Each structure stands twice: as structure tokens, then as C-alpha cells.
Amino acid sequence: MNAILRNTLDLDAWWMPFTANRQFKAAPRMLASANGMFYRTPEGEPVMDGVSGLWCVNAGHGRPEIAEAVGRQLMELDYAPGFQMGHPLGFTLANRLTALAPEGLDRIFFTNSGSESVDTALKIAIAYHRARGEGQRTKFIGREKGYHGVGFGGISVGGLVNNRRLFPLLPADHLPHTHLPAVNGFSRGQPAHGAELADELERLVALHGAETLAAVIVEPVAGSAGVLPPPVGYLDRLRALCSKHGIVLIFDEVITGFGRTGAPFAAQRFGVTPDIMTTAKGITNGALPMGAVFVRRELHDAVMKGPPETIEFFHGYTYSGHPVACAAALATLDVYERDGLLTRAAVIGDHWADAIHALRDAPHVTDIRNFGLMGAIDLQSRPDAVGARAYAAMVEALKQGLLIRITGDTIALSPPLIISEAEIDELFATLRRVLEGLG
Ligand SMILES: Cc1ncc(COP(=O)(O)O)c(C=O)c1O
User: How many domains does the structure of the chain reveal?
Assistant: First the structure.
């Protein structure tokens, strides 16, 4: 980092999220501005954004349409309470979203993040069962390696041990993960093997009793664990089993929503419709915090009970449906639709798949996976130092002008949906150089 900046900025006060704070502050990595596919460092060096910020800037950076809509809205109506009051943009946005959603998911609850969307969805599942006289359905089923944010609900159904081990958890059990490199190594798109892993739900039903189970939650393509596309047929089986046992099926589409897989939502790409869908991130192109939970009408209607003056669902956030976030989301949807970004990953996905799988012979690579405009590269771990090699790759990639994301010894990629074929080639040429230079 620039010496002048280092001398003028005190880095102590910001306790940074999911960051090795002491390591970072000893050698900070800073981004100062962004446009299109590129960030710039404080020194003005360009850095290609290989991860859409954090899987969220789907239309690329610095979109003037979004900035202008936000600026206008701040002066028109900066804030309005959402409890017992409404404002037109919230309703307009909810209607726009339902028009994009899989058929039947036409009720929207607004939140401010993916974590809040997940905790909201879990509560809706409980409220639905309770309203139907099945209040004993309170347990959740997540999946190993799942990531559903950091609320207490989200970490309980999540399956990443470091996020769970310190904290008290809600009652939850887990399906096995679907990462099977021995049989599915270097799969292009959906892996062929593993659909039967969905049948493990039958075992969990036999263990817990269907009448105690409220919801199953999975990411259609697991993202944070390192891009695990569902085996062919897996999601269909999960859907069928949830329907059979009266269990609410939640797809966590916080990453896969808004075009990442080549359709507006992964549910549409895979042709499997859940009962609830959680979203955030790309809903505003990452410009402002917002999330939305899409709910099948039947679930919503079951909860709309009692005298009309009763609050049906005791849940909500001060900023649920924040007018400025709504304005950002509406402008974002305009950009997505005008530029065809919600389906572009299906078009450019073949070039992406060719380019990422061409790294198969690069040093240290043990597996490669891809789906839509998502991809992951597993590296052989250094002896007794899991994560060190991928961390070195991230630091070196940044030096060479490329932002990647790592988890353990996996490199994850999810560039803005505007990426060109030439930029895809540039991204993987940089990554090859990085891998070839790694010890
Ligand atoms: C699938 C999924 N769910 C939930 C979340 C949490 O979202 P947030 O960080 O906005 O709370 C994430 C974040 O990456 C995610 O990938």
C-alpha cells in the first residue's frame, strides 16, 4: 500500500469481517475506486474483479443509472417506516421481483442482507406450520458445507465448521454435501454422480420424524464452500421428498440469484421450484444493502389469519423495503433487463467453462468446477498448512491485477456478468501465471 496512505490512515479501529485482522493490518490490501470490470488501488493500479466484489456486483461497477436513482430517491423520500406505513416504491419493487420469479413465488419480504433473508425464511417456515396447526415442526435441515450467512439461524443450518463451533445453535441436522471429486472430478457443469445423496433426507425423516421438521434449506449451487453445482437430478429428488413429507423447501439464492447461473434464478435454470427463495447481493448490484425473501403464495396466505387488525407475522427490520434501496434495486433490474444480463451467463458460460477447465494441467490443481459464471479451482494443500497456498495465490493475483476469492485451498471466481470473452481469457492467463509462480 502507498506509503503516504499508510502513514495517514489509522487501521486499528475497524474490526474487519471474516478477515485475519492482524495479518491484514501488517500488509493491507486496499481498493479505492471501481468502474466496469475493474477496481483501482489507491496507487491507481487496475485490478480485474474476478468475484463481482463479493458475488454481488453482477452488472459491473459504477453504473450511473443506479447512482442517479439513489441520488434522486435520497432527495425525494430518504426514509419511510415500513411498520404500519408504506411507500409506493416498495410495492413497485415487490411486483417487479415477482414478475421475474419462478411461478407461484409471488409474495416478497424485504430484508437488508443475505443473513437476514435466511433467518426470515426460517421464521416464515415456522410461522406457516404453526398457522396450520403443526407448531411442533421446529427443526431445520441444512447441508454440510452450506453457507447461509451469520445469523444464529443461518449458522445453525450452515455446514461450515468454523462459523458454527463457537456459538449456540438452533435445532438442526444436515444432509451430506455433494463434493465427490473421486467420481465427479473436473466435471463441466452439473456433475453426473450424487443425486442419491438427496435421499439422505429419508434417513433424517426416519431419525427425527417428519412431523418435527420445518424446512430444508440448500444453496442450489453451493457458493462459499467452493462452487458445488448440484448433481444431475439432485434438486428434483429433494423437491419430491420435501413435498412428500410436508417440509418447506428453501433455496438460498443469495449468490445464485439475479443471473449468476444463466437464468434470473437458479430455480429456473434447474427447473425446480422451492417454497421459499432467499436473495440479497445482486438485487441492488451490491450498491446498497438489501435482501428479499420470495414466498409461495400458499405459505403467505396460511399466515394471514385472525382478525384483520392483528399483525400476522411479528418480524421485520427498520430498513425492510428502505426506499433508497428500493430505488437502487429498480434501477438495477432496469440495467439487468436492458443489457440481457439475467441470461448472459448461459450464453457466455461455454467460453467460461472452456477457459477454466484449460487450467487442469496448471501446477497444484486437483479439481475444477463451473456453472453459469461461477467457477472454482481446488489446489493441493501444502503439508500442514491448509489454506496457505491459496492465500499466496490471492496475494500474488492481486499484485498481477486480479481479485480472486479463496476458501481453504479453493479459489472461487464469479466475475460481473458483463465480462467479455477477451477478459475471461485475460483472467485465466493471469491465474495460470500465478499458479506457475507458486511454491
Ligand atoms: C448462500 C448465501 N446465503 C447467505 C449469505 C449471507 O449474506 P450476507 O453476507 O449479505 O448476510 C451469503 C453470503 O455470501 C451466501 O452466499
Answer: 2
> 225, 177 in Cβ contact below 8 A?
yes
Kindly state whether residues 234 and 361 are assigned to the same domain: no
How far apart (Å, rounded) are the C-alpha atoms in residues 110 and 321?
5
46-49/402-403 β-pairing: parallel
Determine the residue of 19, 122, 224, 227 to mutate for testing ligand 1's pocket, defined as the one with the most ligand atoms within 8 A of the Cβ atom: 224
Q: How close is the Cα of 185 to the center of ligand 1, in Å?
A: 26
Ranges under pLDDT 70 in the chain:
1-7
Q: What are phi and psi of 96, to 5 degrees?
A: -60, -40
In a domain, residue 19? The reply is no
Please, which residues have CB within 8 angstroms of residue 148's CB and are 6 or more apart in sequence? 114, 115, 118, 142, 154, 155, 157, 158, 217, 219, 252, 278
pLDDT, one tens digit per residue, over 74-126 is 999 999 999 999 999 999 999 999 999 999 999 999 999 999 999 999 999 99
Model's pTM, two decimal places? 0.98
